[in-house]
Amino acid sequence: MSGMDGGTGRMTRTGGFGSLAGRTPEKDKASEMFEEEREALAADWSDICTGLKKDLGHQLYSQWIRPIELGSFCQETGTLDLFLPTEFSANWVNDRFADRLSLAWKIARSEVRNVRVSVHPGRRKMVDLRVGPAAANDHVPPPSPVEAITEMGSAGLDPSLTFTTFVTGEGNVLAYNAAQRMAATEAPQFSPLYLKAATGQGKTHLLHAIGHQFAAAKAGARIFYCSAERFMVEFVQALRQNQMIEFKARLRGFDMLLVDDIQFIIGKASAQEELLYTIDALLQEGKRLAFAADRAPQALDGVEPRLLSRLSMGLVADIQPADIDLRRKILEHRLTRFTSSDVPDDVIEFLARTISRNVRELVGGLNKLIAYAQLTGQPVSLQLAEEQLTDILSANRRRITIDEIQRTVCQFYRLDRSEMASKRRARAVVRPRQVAMYLAKVLTPRSYPEIGRKFGGRDHSTVIHAVRLIEDLRTRDADMDGDVRSLLRQLES
């Protein structure tokens, strides 16, 4: 049935087909192009998901990748949006899979230059963490807070984060030993354990490892792992659905409570109070508790004093940033997971020295480099690393100057600064000067002639000789290698 729109005088069609006003051939064509683009993106995403499912396994894929929804693609910026339903899941995917997703999309569609993972606008629903047959059924309704908190004990632990895959060094050995003690069958000497570390230094890894080890040591153990954000969300949902009695009873029925990113519980008074009562109840029954945060308990502003007291009453174990030796060990350990990867020693040394902010970026950089090399058929090289890891490298590089290098070397060898540019040929002066030239080439982007000019106008061939000599001495002379390592630590700290 057709008629005239009294307000505009335009023809409209009624009878259930909707308005046809304003439609033009140009708009129809644009709409068709848009739909074709969406279908092409969806097809590429389907192929990418097939590969990710094969690489990650069914559980990790179902839990973290399956919920991702394809967003819009901006041709001008080359940015593709991927959406997840909660901040927790978006952050988790960003931390662990951002590089992999970005590389997969760049290979599938060259025009995709950036992949942005964020929370779906206006949505904050919980991710269904159930495993088994129900996890494969997209139409099963999400669990209630009580169901979710019961099942997170088994589904919340990442199978790859164990003590076996954790690499120890001087800065994290205390936390590692304390975590193992918490997971042992014997009653721990302290509880709770509080792991404090900056982002990406291994505190989450140790929490997961505690859960896995305890589950293996104690048959039938009930373990609850979650983030503080997740705890608060479950608490609020239980409160709204009048399920607080069941929520408390089930939460306090666990043998081990593992709470990550405890700093995010700041300011949530009701959730803080419930966590406090839960800690008290579990401690009274001899249960085990471990928490992790990016700051010490005393630095948690907005946390109720009684809760601060409980968090710090056991052992607070600090994880220091990984030094260059530990970063090398982590990269070498990671390489054992790749069956067909040939990564030269100079690339490992370059990554260990350059990506120093956190371990997560370090491992992510290696993964990205190897994945790119395998997918494109190129050999892993120093040039490839510099080309493909530009963003990570630029974010980690601290600009070290030749003046700073000369100053540090002179202090180390107890020389006057003027000796760096002097003409003296005494061995006690020449060798430190050569070390400084070597460090200038390793740690700065300066060319050989530029370095030579900073050392009293010396010829570039002198600098090349110094660099090659120190490289050779490091392989044959343990004392020289120790001196250079010590100077590198000072300059990179």
Summarize the structure.
This protein is of the alpha/beta class and 493 residues long.
CATH topology of the largest domain, what is it called?
Answer: Rossmann fold
H-E string: EEHHEEHEHHEHEHHEHEHEHHHHHHHHHH
User: Which strand order do you get reading across the main beta sheet?
Assistant: 7-8-9-6-10
Dominant shape: globular
> What is the number of independent domains?
4
**Fourth CATH level, the homologous superfamily of the largest domain:** P-loop containing nucleotide triphosphate hydrolases
State mean pLDDT (0 to 100 scale): 81
Q: Radius of gyration, Cα only, in angstroms?
A: 29 Å
Question: How would you sum up the major sheet?
Answer: 5 strands, parallel
User: Which segments are poorly predicted (pLDDT under 50) over 5 or more consecutive residues?
Assistant: 1-23, 123-155
**Which structural class do the helices and strands define?**
alpha/beta
CATH class of the largest domain: Alpha Beta
Distance from first to last alpha carbon: 78 Å
Number of strands: 10
CATH architectural label of the largest domain: 3-Layer(aba) Sandwich
What is the percent of helical residues?
40-55%
Number of helices: 20
What amount of the residues lies in strands?
5-15%
Region (Domain IV, binds dsDNA): 374-493
Binding site for ATP: 200, 202-204
GO biological process, one term: DNA replication initiation
Subcellular location: Cytoplasm
